[in-house]
Amino acid sequence: xxxxxxxxxxxxxxxxxxxxxxxxxxxxxxxxxxxxxxxxxxxxxxxxxxxxxxxxxxxxxxxxxxxxxxxxxxxxxxxxxxxxxxxxxxxxxxxxxxxxxxxxxxxxxxxxxxxxxxxxxxxxxxxxxxxxxxxxxxxxxxxxxxxxxxxxxxxxxxxxxxxxxxxxxxxxxxxxxxxxxxxxxxxxxxxxxxxxxxxxxxxxxxxxxxxxxxxxxxxxxxxxxxxxxxxxxxxxxxxxxxxxxxxxxxxxxxxxxxxxxxxxxxxxxxxxxxxxxxxxxxxxxxxxxxxxxxxxxxxxxxxxxxxxxxxxxxxxxxxxxxxxxxxxxxxxxxxxxxxxxxxx
Length: 344
Hints:
Blueprint: E1 4-9, H1 13-24, E2 29-35, H2 39-49, E3 53-54, H3 58-63, E4 69-72, H4 79-88, E5 92-95, H5 103-115, E6 121-123, H6 133-142, E7 148-156, H7 173-176, H8 183-194, E8 200-206, E9 211-213, E10 220-222, E11 228-234, E12 240-246, E13 255-261, E14 264-269, E15 274-279, E16 285-286, H9 299-309, H10 318-336, E17 342-343
Parallel strand pairs: 1-2, 1-4, 2-3, 4-5, 5-6, 7-12
Antiparallel strand pairs: 7-13, 8-11, 8-17, 9-10, 11-12, 13-14, 14-15, 15-16
């Protein structure tokens, strides 16, 4: 078995928690070089995970002939540039979510992957519902919920409450692009369950703290990314999607999904870690996934398996990533045009 050598570009929290340890656990896989935002932080990560080399610039990692695959753990602002360069250099790519800054960058990533079909191009998937995804899709396929009428999701955070807090990366368009709070990562799950995209979308949002300090001692800058956003989308079938993302709530907040049909409702409570079902005329009951349907975080192993065995990427391929970028871009466009319906 040929050894697979990984180069890491951007060693943020998820990369340190998941990707580096995940790769190091796989037989015949090594993490050989890391490049973080500074030489000092690169050295710190290398020492912590026994990575033999550091690079001062991400382009060094992409050009390194000893590296077979690139793991991108930066914020979205570099995902497209690194991905396109890495694929052109003959490297497999695993990039952290969100896919890119906007649809245009996502399209460039898709084009680069199509130009090198022999290479694996994967995006880190939305992980929150992995345990229940197969069960939910089976229930939807069975038709027991009847005609689907509405799917909704809600995520409440306290991220933007403190007006004195500096600009966080999710509010910084230069780092995050059109990605808004966790809208894309929650919509990705709906897309996974339904297997289709909505036709049109309307969004309403607000920024209450109009200016924030950029960096600990930086200048005041205008806040462009909404602190709270509500989205309504409509599908060709008449199904509605209603999403609420807010960074304005302190306390326990709400976190989950509801799928409502003409004969029943599924409720996914992510805070409680519980899926429940209520059919017309019956009582609400907890749904426990069958053991064979339970999935968990397997991102690094899936990536390696696709490289070694040619297994197709399901969580998440570039086509699905581009679809959720279209959704988030449509939300920003609707907001910019005073909350009008726009095509997805």
